[in-house]
Amino acid sequence: MIIRRATGSDIDALIAFNQGIAMETESVALDGDTLRKGLHGLLSQDRYGFYTVAEKEGQVVGSLMITYEWSDWRNGVIWWIQSVYVRAENRRQGIYTALYENARSLARESGDVAAIRLYVEKGNEVAQQTYSKLGMKETYYRIFETEFV
Questions:
Q1: What DSSP state is assigned to residue 128?
Q2: Chain centroid to CA 106
Q3: What is the pTM of this model?
Q4: First-to-last CA distance in the chain?
Q5: How far is residue 56's CA from residue 65's CA, in Å, rounded to a whole number?
C-alpha cells in the first residue's frame, strides 16, 4: 500500500468517496459538480489543507483530508482530519491506520502542528473505537455550526 498526497488525477475517486461518506453518515446526496469544484480548489492551493490517499495495486482505496486551524492558545496549527473514507471492500485492512499514521508523521515533521483533531458522528461507535485504539482522546467539546450553503 502506498500513502501519498492526492493530485488532480484522484478527483473522481474523491468525489465518489465524499458522496459515500455523506450517504453513509447523513443520508445526504452530494452534488458531483459542487464536489469537483471544491476538490479542485483544495488540490490546486494548499492554504486550506490537503488530501492524502491510500493506493493498493494502482487503485485509490481510501482518503483523508487535513484542514488547518490556527490556535493562538497554543501558538500553533491544529490539523483537522475530515472526509475520511475507505472503500467498503477494503475496510478492516489497516488503511485508515496507515492514513492516520502518515498524517501524524507529517504533522511532526512540519514543526508547527500543535494537535490533530477530528469530529465523528455520535452514533458511529466503530469509528470511535478505531480512533481510541490509535491513541486519540475524546475531548469535552461539542461542535455547533451555522451553515451558509
A1: H
A2: 14
A3: 0.89
A4: 37
A5: 18
